[in-house]
Here is the input.
Amino acid sequence: MRIDIITIFPEYFGPLSVSLIGKAAARGDITFGVHDLRGWTHDLHRTVDDSPFGGGPGMVMKPEPWGEALDSVQALAGGRGGFGAGPLLVIPTPAGAPFSQLHAARYAAEPWLIFACGRYEGIDGRVADEARSLMRVEEVSIGDYVLAGGEPAVLVMTEAICRLLPGVLGNAESAANDSFGFGDVESGDPMAGLVEGPSYTRPRVWRDREVPPVLLSGDHAAIARWRRDAALRRTAQNRPDLVARLATEAPVPLDRHDLQVLSEAGFPVDGKDMAH
Ligand code: ADE
Here is the structure.
């Protein structure tokens, strides 16, 4: 996979050479191109922003350097061939569609991604319009808060995407077993719609706290039931929005035991309403 990143802070992406992603890049499984947007400016001050038409606070990133940057990056990587459908341009912005595990999986299947990191009040709107006439473009947000720029969002998305690439995680199953919210309902995973419960490792007793004994029992059915209970409790505690959808959207209908656990966790649900 090839990932190009256009930014005014190339140094922000030092972490891409660290850890699992760094190793995948060293192996050649992922090729990163980090490009300084100011390289496509032509004035003494290497200006990338200007005040907004129509007034208002802040600054807007100028279209000319972005246009040239996207033209060059597209040509540079395209020249190496082998990128069939061409690049997918991803523009991080708080106004984008919510980035989820589903996006990560979809992006991980792309041969070539370009990320365009905006700063200030964003990039002149014509840049995305122009890019849409040349390539596929998606605007995504990593959460309902406003960052100073797209750079941290790109680091977050890159990590979520790259850990799904074959060979990046040590244990191939770790990524396959990822369950997140309702993202993978189609997979039929019985844990879809839930967040995961806690995990434990040695020592069996730490500061007088014991690992739940069932996890040491070797009884796989009992362990699976315990894990489901723990996932239900944590989902109830932290993600009531997901609990509300379980009745109608969970791939496996909630059983009486599930309803009991949810009820004890403060979701007194009527079995007739919840189980389908
Ligand atoms: N840029 C600024 N805030 C952002 C957010 N929440 N997600 C993605 N890009 C951003």
